[in-house]
Amino acid sequence: MMVTCRCRSLVLAVAAVGVLAGGARAQRRGAAPAYPVAEIGTQAIGIVRLSQGGYSSTHLAIPGGEVETLPTLYAAFFLSPRLALEPALTYQHHSAGGSSSWVGAGLLRLGGYFSGARQDSPFLYGELGVLSSDDSGQSDIVRRESHAGFGLGGGYRWLVSDGRLALRLEGRARRWTTDPDLTELGLALAGGVVLGRAR
What we know:
Layout: H1 2-31, E1 35-52, E2 55-61, E3 73-80, E4 83-96, E5 99-113, E6 121-136, E7 142-160, E8 165-176, E9 182-198
Antiparallel strand pairs: 1-2, 1-3, 1-9, 3-4, 4-5, 5-6, 6-7, 7-8, 8-9
């Protein structure tokens, strides 16, 4: 009889702990703020200053304003409410008079959002990238180059239309390991669509 009572007490204790743990988890889930799953967008307007080998030039791009003023498609995949992994791609092809050339770049950023991705927030990021180009002239000599790059940037992100759209104003400094090195200083206004919510 004593063994039966102890077994029943143990079962009730385990059940009570399970209920309390489940309630605590549900409460934490309910209290956790929702944050976006991803954001996809592009630069709408930008100003870029390029410096290389003692020569500098300033460019205004509409649309554009990213890698060497080219339009760039970016995405932000939120790993947490304040941390995002942000790849970006750009590509441009030109063909005339029997010759063709293209330039493209891929960037990977790690961004931090001080107030979280669910609300308006300042942000900072560090980035690594690869810049590639191919120039095929009439002499059939193909010149291909690839260069690594790195940079830092930051700005402010606004959520509009009930959080379904995002606007970004950001500045950056970037260096490509060309010969000689190419330095970019840029300011851009970007817009994107916010996708999904996670907890």
